[in-house]
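USER: Write out one fold?

ASSISTANT:
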Amino acid sequence: MRKSLFFGAVALLVALTSFSSRAEELKARQLSLEESIVIGLENNLDLKQVAYDLSLKETEYEEAKINNLLKTSIVTLKTAELNFKRAQDAFEEKKKQLTLEEISNRYFEVLKYEEKVEIEKISVEQSKENLEMVKNKFSLGDASELDVMQAEVGLSQAELNLTQAKNSLIVARMNLNYVLGLPLDLPAKLTDTFSLEPLEITLEESIQKALENRYEISQAQNSLDFATLKLNLKQNQYTSEMEKKKAKIELAKEEVNLERLMKTIPLETTSLLLGLKEKEVNVQITKKEAQEKEETYRIAQAQYRAGFITTSDLLDSQIGLTQANINALEALFSANLAKRQFIKTLGGQLEKTEEKQEKPS
């Protein structure tokens, strides 16, 4: 019996030690957006897959060069070279996507839900305060049972909203860890602030940068050059007219594709820039609306205490304030995402320019 108790105590001690060790291991780490990007580029699983694809295409290109020494085939060699360049472009594009969209968006999403949790906590406290005021009025005969019920429902709804915000925060943190290639339950304290600095760039500059830096254009030009090469190689008496015709069609197709990109990229850039400017304005509007709703709620509380408005009016004012704060938060989040998406459509070059300008100061 004593031996059994002894081993039971040992097992409990081991379990407690393991739990303590795990708790220490999961101690929240400080994490900036810049550090998150570095970690993500090192550990992201999707990027690793793209990197393997790149290595495979590089190997195939090396193999094609060796085979070309034994049996010359310019088309086969150029095809392998083109596939290798496309894999390189895909790898670089994935890095830009991670840096400017996936990692940044997940990081901002955590910040958003952290702020939303705080907003909902304030809403719960306001709902409790309102319920207490209604109960006091009810005890004095100045409020009905229905008023009390309305305030109780308001508090229950606020508590539910808080729970939902906390749950969303849990998922957002797991999503961030996933995109960074970290354990899903690893906690982190994000150190960057949730703000927005408007971009200072004209539409003409934006379109020029996009046309200069978008990888799709260089890919289309490479494909066009390859199609031209294939057509030239078929200009001999040994190639059938059908093969020549097919080569001409392929060349025409690549010409149209390049022309299409030269039009769609400026269109996309224009649309994203105008959308970003709208979102920047909306950030200011929703911020002022939240300030207005806060003042409205303060007045509503005073009016309710004085008996000038109903319980329903008070509760509606409080709900309006909470929603206005959430709208302002969502507008800020949306503008940040739009900014990153716009920078990506420029080929990511604007971000590098901004960093160079910031370093001297």
About this structure: The mean pLDDT is 87.
